Amino acid sequence: MEKYINQFLDFIQNEKKLSDNTLQSYSRDISQYKKYLETNNIQYLKVEKEQISSYMEYLQEIGKKKSTISRSLASIRSFYQYLIRIKKIKHDPTENIQSPKVEKRVPSVLTSQEIELLLNQPKNVDLKGTRDKAMLEVAYATGMRVTEIILLDVDDVHLTEGYVTCKSIGKQRNIPLGSLSIHALKEYMEDARPIMIKDENEKSLFVNVNGKRLTRQGFWKIVKFYKEQAHITKDITPHVLRHSFATHLLQNGADLKAIQTMLGHSDISSTQVYMQFQDNGLKNVYKKAHPRA
Question: d(Cα 45, Cα 80) in Å, to the nearest integer?
Answer without folding.
Answer: 9
